[in-house]
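Worked example

This section walks through a single chain of length 408. The input is the sequence exactly as stored; nothing has been trimmed or padded.
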Amino acid sequence: MQQHIEQILHDMDTLRPFVLANQTQNAELRSIMRRIIQHVEYIQQLPNIPHEKFATMSRCLMQLMDAEHGAVLKKPADEALSESEEEHLIQHTQERRDMLQALQYDWPIVRHSLEKSYALLGKKNDNPEDMRQTALNMERFLQAHLQQEEQLHNEVKQLIAALNTSMHSMLTVLQEVGDDAPEIKQTQQLLEQELPNDPKQAQDILHQARTALLQAGNKLSTASHTMHEQTQLQQERMSKLTQHLKQAEAEARNDPLTGLANRRKLAEFLAELPRHMPISAIMIDIDFFKKINDHYGHDTGDMILKSLATILNESTRSSDMVARLGGEEFCIILPGAEIHAAEALASNLCQSISVHDFICGERTINLTISLGVSQKKSNETAMESIKRADQALYQSKENGRNRMTLMK
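Given that input, the structure is written out below as tokens.
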């Protein structure tokens, strides 16, 4: 079509000088020539869709609309649509268009939100492409997390209820001996407020209440031996709850198997580092770890993970961060270290692990690891640098494993 239009314009350019020269007095003819050329040029500017492409798109659109509008689409070509049919078709097409536009906008946001939620919970998404299973797993993780939070808050409420009874008796006894008991009143004020959801903040409040109770208990010991025994009992219960809170905080930031930092603690560590400080990252993955689990069992696999975590911790500085990201994947962050230092550490780890004997009960198991190394560039974040180290790790896997790859 475009070729024909160009030929028409070419021929019109050829004819126009002759017509204008021979018809100098015919303004209407010159006007007609100009309009013809303008119309052809306008047609030339319209989108030129090849016939084959247009036919393919038409078939696909007919298949998409056939479910609701099959009867309308199969009408004879010369039969016009009724007003209601045309209105319904236009409305349905607009709804589909709006739905697809909304999906194109919302789908990446949903995917990003789910991945971020997994990272905050310290969980690994084994199948990020299956969004349905990803959402179901997230729902299960959140339900378990909420159940733990509810159980912890119920224990706190039970303790506060028991403390209120004891503090009333303590206050009465101390007032009878001429003491206003400000420590008891302070504890009552602390426990009257709603405990925050954050475990550390709740722990601080309970620690203040425990300190005040200890002071009141020292006074009360001179007035009532019985009351003193009751106070000690409450202190033990409060200490137990404080330990529960400490454990909850540790579990939220540490891997329960190896004791290493999890993704959440790693993200907090990276956020606290100075922006312009050199940072190098090492990604580590155990080669053929699934075969080890399948052959020797998951208990043996867990022992290997814990042993490797100990080796990584002992091979790094106190200022470094060693984290388990999930499964057999580990990460080492080296603040202030240039890439050559990270490269040397990675090479040493690769060689030492390959000759190390992992003692698992009565078995001795040998294994290898693959590593990827990168250094944070001035125009990227620490997480982007870690992703590049992860890409280098996969190159090590593809190149035969038991090796280190540098990503500059």
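What to look for: The beta strands are 279-286, 321-326, 329-335, 358-360, 363-365, 369-375, 404-407.
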